[in-house]
Every structure is written in structure tokens, then in C-alpha cells.
Amino acid sequence: MPTFLRNTGGAVLRPASPFTLNALNAGCLCALAAALPALAQSTPPAALPPVVITGNPLGSDSLATPASVLTGPGLVLRRGSSLGETLSGLPGVSSSYFGPNANRPVIRGQDGERIRVLGNGGATLDASALSFDHAVPIEPLVVERLEVLRGPAALLYGGSAIGGVVNAIDNRIPKSALQGHAGALELRGGGAARARSAGALIEAGNGASGPGGRGFVLHADAFKRRTEDLRVPDFDRPVEGGGSERRDRIVNSASDAEGGALGGSMVWGQGYLGASVDTYRNDYGIVAEEDVLIRMQRDKFALAGEWRELGGAIRTVRARLQSTDYEHEEVEGTGEVGTTFSNKGEDGRIELEHAPLGGLKGVFGLQGERAKFEALGEEAFVPNTETRQWALFVHEELALAGASRLSFGARVERSRIESSGDADPSEPKFGDAQDRRFTATSAALGGVWDLAASWGSGWQATGNLAYTERAPASYELYANGVHLATSAFERGNADLDLERGGNLDVALEWKSGAHRLRAGAFVSRFSNYIALLRSSEADFVSDEGDSFPVYAFEGVKARLQGIELEGAWRAIDAEGSLDLEAQLDALRADNRSTGEPLPRIAPLRLRLGAAYSLAGWTLRGDVVRAQRQSRVPADDERTPAYTLLNLAVSKRLTVGMSDALLFVRLDNATDELAFNAGSIATVRELAPLPGRSLSAGLRVSF
Fold first, then answer.
1. Which phi-psi region, left, alpha or beta, contains residue 671 (left: φ > 0; alpha: ψ -120 to 50)?
2. Structural domain that includes position 172
């Protein structure tokens, strides 16, 4: 076992041996270095169209389901060290925030299994939904586009998309032809965690670029990111045995991540066929335990293709198949591995777009997934399980007058979730092997109505009505043990039924040039909502001398309702431009069976921003106000209000065929002490949000 170095705050950082790039990363960087001299003569890749890809198989200009897209300079300026950090603050989106490393997106109060995190439309097959201290193995530094669908998206992506979808899109399997070479290099440094990170990609093709081009395209990318313990405003950190100590850093929050990918495609005028292999490594500290390191690795192989303009009844075929091997070890301060989690499996989907039937267009398809999960070690609180899922889905759109249209979708999903039971009968914990089977059915009806004739140009209304069902996750059925991340004994319920709920989402939108406005409201009612609840005030379990409260998974009635407002106005549009922005979201979530609020709900949030641009320079300021979260269940605590001031300046440059973006950010300029209401109570007081920090970066695209 390797020994580990520590930083001044006591966090486990990395193996004492020098960092060595694996063969894949080395190959990626060598390819980049070899191609740099020719990049100035290369044709850059075509820009992504301004259309939401996720949940939009027919390429419609707008969706009935609310969505947000981050790409280009907007994504570069928002990038964090995790998906949760990058996306938090978008309308309706917060994060679970188990410190800066394990930080999963939360959409409209929904997290865990109810949020489907995808990579290029495929499953991540990790362990992040199982526990708050498990990170998502996706590196934002090499992602080219992030899309968030708020509300039910189960029809195309599975029952676990009942709360929303996050899709991280890269170009590791190229979809369009390229002539010559293209690439990008991004360097970032500073911030509250003193990050040092670099990412690079290179693509090369031998065909004509643009529509109808054909040829072979190669892709290679690599990244490296290292952070130290996160600096925060001075706070009183609780210590074991009672009392507190004054700290200005989150203990054991450093990280060391690296990875990369190789991919290639054969592209022709009507489609493409390609493959990729990628790897991800991340060693990071667990903030709830001062001397524990998670050593994560994930390898993936993917095949994808599309064939358009086939003629006949089927016009387009799209398919994706991938195999994932995920594992992480929880390493004690002595270097001993305490618990190992692994998730290995395959997933695939095929979509077929049929020929128009009058004004009706649509796709139907088949999706399958198999995952074999294992937890080995003293702290394993779930048994080894195998989950198989198969589903049929359909999505149809009917054109109406003008730009109006109706959409309909349905999905039938069959799941089988098997528990291996006790690995050693002499040490009973999970009981005998068990097998549960579920059939979940979901349907949605939506519409986009063009209001230009009655309201004026740029106005439209959207609405979506959905009924969704979700099969319980393996840990919701079979967990039985102490979960140190939540400081609780978690008990599954093998008799759980399907999670069932209905959702209504409506919005009014207006767009005119740089001006835009969107006002939306939603309500979700669940007749059976699977929640982890405190079983009894007097119910405790002892484990190795410590006492833990018992929490059990139960089906309850629940309601979540909220509003989302966002808008932008170009106040000045002359030699320079001044854009004013505002955003507000509010959510109320109730356990209707107990009368208590649901846990970990973001409070009302307001953001006001202004950006002035002139001659390639942009100066931006944002004020973010989060109200006090007082609506919490009895076993949680209120979260104080906070106000954050963030400033940034950026400069866009063009030199020959190269574009560059240089930026400097000052986050939390007033060094305000703030806590995330979406964190679990046992970690919230250990991990405040980042303090005042200065960071800078440069992205060059060739």
C-alpha cells in the first residue's frame, strides 16, 4: 500500500510517489504537442446548433419541458471541480454539496436516484446516488456542453429520471466530418481550493468539413486537476466528543484527478459510426472523516452511430452501446482499504425515427441496462446486487398552426433487482438472497403554443403534464447497516412498491434579440414517494461502541411545488453593451403523510447580475441572495440566509485561426460565511461554502 502525503490542514492528498501520466493520457498529450504547429492552418469544428439535444430527438426549436444549456464561454466561466458546483445556481438547480469533491446536482429538490446523470445520453453506472460522499466520475474540464432538463424526463431516459436529467456532452465520438486539425487547451488556477488544472483536446480528420462531408475523424483529450483543502471564512467546526475548534479550511477536502479519452468515427453525409475509450481517476478526501481517502477509478468503452435519410418507413436510426467498469476504495489513514465499492455493467439504446404521418413526427426505441454492484468491507451497508432493466419508449409530435405543436410520450420499463444476501452466513447482516421485479409505466402530454398572433412576436406558452413511475433502487430495498456518510443506521424495505407521481409544469416565455423573459410554475404530487425517514426518537443501534439513529426507507405521500423566473434586458446596445439579468426560484416540499417538510430543500434564491461588454472585454457582477431555510423536518436544523458577491472580467482574443478567452474571477468578494441547505445535516456544519477567492484561466481554441 502506498503512503500518503498530507497538506497543512491534515487532508490526504496523493500517493507519495511522483505523478505519472498513464499511457492513455500520455498518448493524448503527445498527439496534442505533435499537432500544435499545424493547428493555425486547420479548420475549426462547427459550432453546436442553438438547440437542446437532450430529450429532443426530433430537433425541435423549443421544448415543453424546461431546460438549461451551458456551452462556449458561458460554460468556461462557470466550470467548477464537479458537476454540482458547475450547475448550482441555474434555475431550479442546487447541489448536495458533501464538500467540494462529492457534489451531485439537485433539481427542484430531487436528488439521488430521481436525477439521471448521463454522459452523451448514456448511463454513468457509478455509486454517486448511493451515498452523498461518492463523487460523479465526470470531469467538467473536458465537457463541451451541459444540458439540464427540469421535471420528469423518464420517457426517454428511464424511471430514475423522474426529477430531471443532467447530460454531459463531449465529442469523444465525433459526429461530423473535419478537414485538417482542430483543438483546444484550457489552463485554470487559483480559487478557494488553490486549484491547478489543465485540459487539452485534439481532433484530426481527412474529410471535407460541413454538411455532407465524409471521412475519418480522430479525437484525443486529457486532463489533470489538483486541489488543496478548501478555504472558507472562519467558522466553528464541531469536534468529536463535543465542543468546536476555529477553522478557516474544510478538513480533508483536497483532491487529485486525472483522465482522458481516445475516440474516432467514420463520418459520411447521412451519418456516422464511431467508438471511444476513456478513463477517469480521482483521489479525494471525505470531509466527514479526517483521515479517509476515496480512491476512485472508472473506465468506459462506448460505440455510437447514426444513419439518417434512409427513406421508407424508418428515416433515421440512432444507437449507443457502452460498457463501464467503476470501482472506488475507501482508504484509512493507515493506508488500509476499509471498504471497496464497484459497479460494472452495460447499457444501450436504439432510437428509430419514423416517416412523417401527416403532421405527426416521432421516434420509438428500446433501452437496456445491466449493473452488477458489489460492496466489500466492514462499512458495507448494502449487499451485492444485480439490476437489469429493459424499456420500450415512444415520443411523438404533432404540428399545429404556426410554430405550435403537441407532444406525447410513453414508456414501459421492466426491472429486476436481485440481492445476493449474506456473503458469509456465519455473519448475518442482509439475510437470504432476494429478488424483486417491477413494471413501471410513464406517460406525458405536452405542448408549445405560439402566441405571436395575439400577444406579439416572440411570445410562447409551454405546458407539460406527466405521470411517472420508478422502481425502487437496490439500496432502498436491501440496505441494512451503518452509513458513516450520514451518521445513521439505514434500513431498506424489500416490500417497497413503485414510486408514483404526477407533475404539471407551465411557463410563459418571450424572446426578442438579446431580451428574454421566462416565468414558470410547477407542482408534483406523489401517491408513493420513497423517503429515508427517522424511524423513532428512541430507536438507536450500537456499532463498535458508537450509537446511531435508525433511518428507514418508506413510501409516503409528498408534494413539491415551486416557481422559476428568469430574464435579461439589454439596457445599452451601442459601441458597448450592457445586459441586466435577474433570476428567482422558490420551492416548497412537503411530506404529506407526516405533515413535515421534506429534507435538504434549497431556500428561495434571487440572483441579480450585470455584464458590460466592449471591444472583446466583458466585466460581470452577480449578487446571489439565498433566504433562510426554516422549513426543515424535526431531525434537521435551519440554514441561515447569505448574500454572495461575485465579480469577473474576461477578454476574447482572435489571432489568425485561433480564438482565446482569458478570464479572472473574484468569488464571494465579501468573504461571507454561508452553508448549503441541500447538504445533509451531519456534514453541513463541517463544510461551509467557499470563502473569498481569486482565480484565473485561459482557453485557446485552434
1. left
2. 4-218+241-701
User: Amino acid identity of 503?
Assistant: N
Average confidence (pLDDT) over 10-32: 37
pLDDT value at 24 more than 90: no
Rg (alpha carbons) of the chain, rounded to whole number: 25
Number of H helices, E strands in the chain: 7, 37
The pLDDT assigned to 525 comes to: 97
**Amino acid 47: pLDDT:** 39
**Average pLDDT of the chain to the nearest whole number:** 90
How far, in Å, CA of 115 to CA of 364, rounded? 22
Partners of 368 in the β-ladder: 348, 390
Q: Report, as an integer, the average pLDDT of 275-301.
A: 96
* Burial class, 97, CB count within 10 angstroms (exposed 0-12 / middle 13-18 / buried 19+): buried
In tens, the pLDDT along 176-190 reads: 999 999 999 999 999
Q: Structural domain tally of the chain?
A: 1
Q: Which three-class secondary structure state does DSSP give residue 78?
A: helix
- Establish if 433 belongs to a structural domain: yes
C-alpha span between 536 and 558 (Å, rounded): 20
Cα–Cα distance list, 578 to 140, 571, 608, 614 (Å): 29, 6, 14, 9
Q: Which residues contact 558 (CB under 8 A, 6 or more apart)?
A: 501, 524, 525, 526, 529, 531, 589, 590, 591, 592, 593, 598
CATH label of the domain that carries residue 474: 2.40.170.20
- Quick one: pLDDT at residue 210? 64
Residue 685 is placed in which grid cell? 456544519
**Residue 515, beta-bridge partner list:** 512
DSSP for 199-250?
EEEEEEEES--STT--EEEEEEEEEEEEE-SPEEEEEEEE-TTS-EEEEEE-
Q: Of 205-219, 368-382, 480-494, which gets the smallest average pLDDT?
A: 205-219
CA-CA-CA-CA dihedral for 548, 126, 258, 679, to nearest 10: -40
Distance CA 419, CA 391 (A): 21
Question: How much is the pLDDT for 50?
Answer: 55
Which stretches of 277-358 are DSSP H helices? none
In a domain, 529, yes or no: yes
The tens digit of pLDDT for each residue in 421-453 reads 987 777 788 989 999 999 999 999 999 999 998
Q: Is residue 377 part of a domain?
A: yes
Is 166 domain-assigned? yes
